[in-house]
Amino acid sequence: MSLEFVHDALPGRVVFARGARRRLVDEVTRLGLRRLMVITSERQLDLARALTDGLQDRLAVSFTRVLPHVPDSVAREARTLAEEHSVDGLLSVGGGSITGTAKIVALTSGLPIVSVPTTYAGSELTPVWGMTTGGRKETGRSPMVLPKVVIYDPQLVEGLPRKVATSSALNAMAHCIEALWMSTATPVTTLMALEGVRVLRQGLDELVTDLTPAAFENLVLGAYLAGASFAVAGSGLHHKICHALGGAFDLPHAETHAVVLPHALDFNIVAMRADSATRLTSALGGTDAVESLRDLYRRVGAPVSLAGLGLTAEQLRVAIQVVIEKLPIENPRPVDADAVRAILTAAYRPKP
Ligand code: NAD
């Protein structure tokens, strides 16, 4: 088969270094921003204050009432505040919920975003926004929400609690693995995704065996490669399942991705391009991709069941129905109602 692809490269500047947070003032100056709105959470407020120490004359207002999945009431409040204070830029400091709030303000205002991520969610690299209205999460793509600059400082993730870090890194792993099997994957997204899998696996192992600064560098680099590959290749079955679970039952985002990933991979591995499957297996450091991933989960103590995340049997039934209603779903292996039922049932209470 001859090689053919369309790679829609996305713009954006990335500054990556231990201590990169100290370059924030230069980056804000480079963009000519003079009235920033800082978007963060109460929990990250001290960090945001420390980061913006040299920017006092350019801070117009702070917004800290961030909630997961950006409820529309939070979006309204943040947008109004930005308008009232005539801000000319948004500085987000935190995980995906915080980046998501900045994106929703940028979507309607066109304000540029400077993003300082503190988890491995990868949202800062994608043009995807999300907002929840009446319990339903709506998502979309817009170039307006893509940050102008992302500052990756591996020192900023050192304080993430181990459990949060593990699930968040597996959320990034899910971006990489799904990017590999999408029909929109390109040789460039595949390269990024495979290297993402490799450094995430290495960083996760180092989290439990050899906690040096290199572990955090690997994990943050993995998050970057995950976001960058997923941003171009798009999302399919795995993300659709997690989205349905998160939206309907408010399950924790990163943990849900972590639990579903081995089952989505188990289902799709036979239908992946042979070269991608072989390279994935090698990036996971074994001879069988699914088993290598499961081994990694055992080594790092990752969450493995939806029941363990609090999903009830009745909710499982509803979740299966919600995903079935989304069919047809773009996927390398055709997905029918039985397949959805099998994947979700296996993820609910996996066999020991
Ligand atoms: P999150 O932002 O809610 O953070 C998870 C937890 O980590 C929170 O309790 C937070 O307080 C804590 N935390 C964050 N940084 C910390 C730090 N440095 N030290 C200690 N604790 C810290 O969750 P998330 O998993 O980062 O992001 C999930 C959200 O991002 C979801 O809404 C998801 O839909 C969205 N997302 C969007 C995209 C996209 O492309 N649009 C991609 C990935 C995720």
From TrEMBL:
Annotated ranges, domain Fe-containing alcohol dehydrogenase-like C-terminal: 167-348
Highest taxon, organism lineage: Bacteria
InterPro entries linked to this entry: ADH_Fe/GldA, ADH_Fe_C, Alcohol_dehydrogenase_Fe, MAR
Domain Alcohol dehydrogenase iron-type/glycerol dehydrogenase GldA residues, every copy: 11-154
Keywords attached to this entry: NAD, Oxidoreductase
Pfam families in alphabetical order: ADH_Fe_C (PF25137), Fe-ADH (PF00465)
UniProt xrefs under PANTHER family: ALCOHOL DEHYDROGENASE (PTHR11496), HYDROXYACID-OXOACID TRANSHYDROGENASE, MITOCHONDRIAL (PTHR11496:SF83)
Protein name per its UniProtKB record: Maleylacetate reductase
UniProt source species: Actinomadura alba
